[in-house]
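Predict the structure of Phospholipid-transporting ATPase.
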Amino acid sequence: MGRRKLRFSNLYSFSCFKSPATDDHAQIGRKGYSRVVYCNDPDNPDSLQLNYKGNYVSTTKYTAVNFIPKSLFEQFRRVANLYFLVVAFVSFSPLAPYKAVTVLAPLLMVIGVTMVKEAVEDWRRRKQDVEANNRKVKVFGKSHTFTETRWKHLKVGDVVQVDKDEYFPADLLLLSSSYEDGVCYVETMNLDGETNLKLKHALEVTAYLHDEESLKRFKAMIKCEDPNENLYSFIGTLHYNGSQYPLSPQQILLRDSKLKNTDYIYGVVIFTGHDTKVMQNSVDPPSKRSKIERRMDKIIYILFSTLIAISGVGSVIFGIETRRDYEDGKYRRWYLRPDHTTSLYDPQRAPLAAFLHFLTGLMLYGYLIPISLYVSIEIVKVLQSVFINRDQEMYDEESDRPARARTSNLNEELGQVDTVLSDKTGTLTCNSMEFVKCSIAGNAYGRGMTEVERALLQRKSGKPVVEADDSCNDLNDMGKSDERLMKGCWIHEQDSDRIRMFFRALALCNTAVPEEDKESHCVFYEAESPDEAAFVVAAREMGFELYERTQMTISLHELDPGSGRRVDRVYKLLNVLEFSSSRKRMSVVVRSMENQLLLLSKGADSVMFERLSEHGRAFEAETKEHIKRYAEAGLRTLVVAYRVLDETEYCNWEAEFTKAKTAETADRDVLVDELADKIENGLVLLGATAVEDKLQKGVPECINKLSQAGINIWVLTGDKMETAINIGYACSLLRQGMKQITITLDLPDIDALEKRGDKEGASKASLESVSKQINEGKFQMTSAKASSTELSLVIDGKSLGYALDKKLEMSFLELALSCASVICCRSTPKHKALVTRLVKTRTGKMTLAIGDGANDVGMLQEADIGVGISGAEGMQAVMASDYAIAQFRFLERLLLVHGHWCYRRIAMMICYFFYKNIAFGFTLFWYEAYTSFSGQPAYNDWYMSFYNVFFTSLPVIALGVFDQDVSARLCLKYPVLYQEGVQNILFRWSRILGWMCNGVLTSIIIFIFTTNSMIKQALREDGQVTDYAILGATMYTCVVWAVNCQMALSINYFTWIQHFFIWGSIGFWYIFLIMYGYVSPTLSTTAYMVLVEACVPSPLYWLVTVLVVVSALVPCFAYRAFQSRFRPMYHDIIQIRRAEGSEEIESGSSVSGELPRDVKWRVQHLTEGLITRKS
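Done. Here is the predicted structure for Phospholipid-transporting ATPase.
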């Protein structure tokens, strides 16, 4: 291909040509801008001295060297683990009431299991690193040829070749590409989540480097900024052939972005490994701990306080009794030999003995602290996450994506969500645009009915409307709705010339790149946005097919109205004035085959109508009316216009424009914008487009169920207010009978102040207006409470900015929280994060944010729980989220089923853990009191060590993984059940203290009944009465039976696993006692043959076990029977109705007359209570 004089750089004026100003380049060489890169010169002595980092990347938390010390540090940051470590050390002293090994063994086991888990997770990260580091890339070597090498061997200054669809191995300076002007297309989805292609271009001075011969002679030096995390800026200078060339981000290719639509590029390595911008950005997400876990820490502190208290009580009594053992030269308890003692028992130094006994008590009663609690919860949460990941009901076949729990720390919080804050585009909708309607020359085309229109019609008529296909794949639906345009029929229309220009503009005014599928030979388009793809496809359906794009030309297959055949037309592309959020429009300048200069433009109606010429407004009123109608139907609209340019005018403008965009001055961008405005005037209106972003399947049903569960739903969208309101009705966020409160600054007085340039006056008036509207809304809130009417709040972005002011935020929040639904229109990413923070911090309740794009990341990280939608806008939201789902509708099951189950399981599990440890620990205390606080434990050392590890740990893990109060079907059928988590019914302080008191009561029953039944009874064949060993074994048997049977009573849903763990734990106690009893008495001590010789042959042992265990369970059983009958919780009511053979529980339904009146009232007011709670 011959080299053309016209460069591709002449075409792109904004994002592609933002070179840094000279002020920034003056910083080169200073602090922060000291990096020097010698390009293609590895033998340069100066280069060898720089000693930059290699390209090896590691994302692991540990290394082989620091794993043990770092992991141990992580484990002993937990107070409980640190306590047991101190106890383990002290247990080597004479103060210990048991052998040191019996404390060390369970501690090492718990720590070891956690470290193994950490090691496995880190090994998985290491495998990903190895895969990335060993990818292959072509490097230009000393032999002046390209050879393959691994990524990890790359060095700063190397010249590499990257081929199409390959990732960039490091941060590169683009030298040249397969295009003669050195441009390339880059996909940055791994960096910012955006799937649209970015255009990069090389400097003209290096664009000629197309072969090994030219690269052989290439030597240069780069001076640039030091490594930093800013993805969107780069300051540097290329020193080449005695000249300096400023570098901008448009010449930089970042690691982990992908080369697209370009055969190959040549680049020089600037940053490697952890110096690359993507690695500089790879910080850990904000640490999130669940509220239950934070409360659990407080419970641990309570237990520590209890431990200190009972140790203190015991030491005081021990000190008093010890002092009394020697009074007036007489020994009271002579058998203790007070005359021959150590400091542990010395009547003459009773205070010291009491203090040492206090230390002994701290170790002895340490079993109040559950050593295996943390590791058990971690195991349970990981297994819960596995079930979430493998839930077939949350698997999306279309995208082949399952649900994914990216963290297991927050599983229980899924069951406590009070407010959901959601993005709209791509979250509630498909983000797959469908060109459904248009207005051309004042005529409306497209007769289909959108989802919003169906919802509006259903709301007005009260009758269901037939749903259309829920597919999110069709980009063009015109063929289903209007035959006047399809199959070339538009040529018979009265305004066929304008129709032809309209669709020609859609085919030309874009940056879409046509690609051909090699298998099907179908043409598809790589477009910067779904909207643009929809426009190009719609133009193709109407006979204007974009089939080829080069740097200089756009080629179309056009339908010729005269012959009715398709002809090839080539348009010379002269300029592209790109779309930006400030410009709100995009334009192209092309030259037709007839040598006619055309400016084609499309943009928002707010900026396009003011640019029309006097003679170009022929059907402005009709078009505005159609746009209004389209917005009410939930459609996204753009205005299309054109202008025929005069040759002289264009040449003069082009000269000014080229001068402005190549200027290295601080006001360069302002000059470029002004010149773009200059030519984008005097336009002729062609019409308007209307595309539909369809709702995802199941969104209305999901929102309706979440609302029934009492969850407040806020939608934060960038759409217009009219569009957002109608989308709200379509997705059931706004419902019939709701009273709508609207806050907007679209007011004539404020517009007048803004047009006069009175910014201060406009700001003051806006603040006052928003304050007034909020107060009016609060007045409506009061009247709505009296009539039990649901409220909804709609606020635009401008008003939201003022509502978040410190003076108004609490009033705004009070109003918003009283509403069932809130819609914030025209919201920026900053608004989303600020609103989320406001709701989270001011209410103290659980917030969940859900979104799919890079603009939702701040919101996801700010919320208590972030849920990412793995949709069309890339994976940035997913990477910043705690949970990922493929469709919004899966949020219903994630919260109402998994959230409810996980909350209930974790709450029950923690309460039970404290119950069983208190029940066990206090039997030690009662025995101590019985023996005058002698410091002698009631049980054998290994009994105590294995209690939390083997005899009671597995059933509680099974509870945390498998228990279900009701089935998944009933969780979805009765969303009100979710309120147990929102109101924290199962883990409030009253319930926690209730479980603790039950543990104390269980210990009292076991100790008193066992001692009174067993002591002085002969259990051995030789007639010996019950001794310390038999009493300890019997009491321990009763504890193991009682706590495991308590678990059986607490479980609602039995599987064979629960049965195996519960009864297996009890059975393992007997097996252990038999095996341990056969060990030498020097090791087994009090356990030697105690079961075989003393306990098993005695009927009394078995009778006591049965009676004591039943007695210990009676209080809890009686309470649960009373509660479920007279003060039932939500799940109790459902279980009662199921037992009666009816599952219908609705507000106002008749309830069985056999139920107590309180239960009837509670059933009847379940749903009504939610409305009252919100109010």
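DSSP finds 41 helices and 35 strands in the chain.
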